[in-house]
Amino acid sequence: MPLSADTTTAAASAPPAAAFSGVTKTYRNGVSALGPIDLVIGKGEFVSLLGPSGCGKSTALRLIAGLSEPTAGVVDVAGASHNGPRSVGFVFQEPTLMPWASVRDNVALPLRLHREANARRHPRVDEALDRVGLSDFADVYPRELSGGMKMRVSLARALVTDPDILLMDEPFAALDEITRFRLNDDLLDVWRRLRKTVVFVTHSVFESVYLSQRVVVMTPRPGRISAEFTIASDEVRDETFRTSVQYGAQCRDVSAALAAAAKGAGWRASCRPG
Ligand code: ADP
Ligand code: MG
Q1: Closest atom of ligand 1 to CA, residue 61
Q2: The pTM is what?
Q3: Most exposed of 92, 198, 232, 272 (fewest Cβ within 10 Å)?
Q4: 172 CA from centroid of ligand 1 (Å)
Q5: Ligand 1 proximity of 131 Cβ (cutoff 6 Å)
Q6: What's the gap in Å between 49 CA and the centre of ligand 1?
Q7: Residue 87 contacts residue 163 (beta carbons within 8 Å)
Q8: pLDDT, tens digit, 9 for 90 and up, residues 88-140
Q9: Do residues 262 and 220 make contact, with C-beta atoms less than 8 angstroms apart?
Q10: What is the 3-state secondary structure (H, E, C) of 203-216?
């Protein structure tokens, strides 16, 4: 059954965490970056935005975070009034850690910015470090950490305020494949335990299919949604899933949609477990 761009089975059954309605974004220099797009992201859903460079993926995340305003249309985020603060955590491709501060102090930064008293001793800092497996590294400095561990710190920092939505902008793109696979599994573990809404930007087909409940494929200039795929929701995501026929078939379909999107030829499709 083809899915329309503005609703999906997953999103329609849950109250939305975020919703784009007729959203466009044109930057001041005249670049038409996005839209119009309509997209409903369900609470607790794991959605990937997949598309070639320049198709507006980062712009879409910034609109959800309230760091940028749409030129037209509305981005509704649950629990936030128009222009009000949004409960989001952001993870970027670069871990952007403060080199002079310990892991604990880096993770505590958002609490400090929220003027929490004694932020570095806040129980949420220990909780966040524990969730990413870094409890034993609280007192070390970023220079002592591998790339994968730095990314874990960045994830802990995004989790420390207990945000409703986790926005992840190509977080694992610079990591080697083995580290990336481990972080994929750890992220899924965090998602399963916390059931946060995750909007994950990637240009890796394999990563998007492995992680997501839904993959949204975007076309460039302006960024539009050209296809959506519902991925097997009840599958345990592990090495067996990664080598399964079903995973391979889903990757092939998403790949074809991405290739079409890159050529600017939009098409819609749905992909269900066979
Ligand atoms: P993606 O994350 O998919 O690579 P972006 O959202 O970063 O895409 O960018 C979409 C388009 O908007 C690109 O053509 C980019 O050059 C342009 N763009 C992004 N940010 C700005 C900005 N602040 N000012 C002007 N143009 C921008
Ligand atoms: Mg980007």
Answers
A1: 6
A2: 0.90
A3: 272
A4: 20
A5: no
A6: 15
A7: yes
A8: 999 999 999 999 999 999 999 999 888 877 878 889 999 999 999 999 999 99
A9: yes
A10: CCHHHHHHHCCEEE
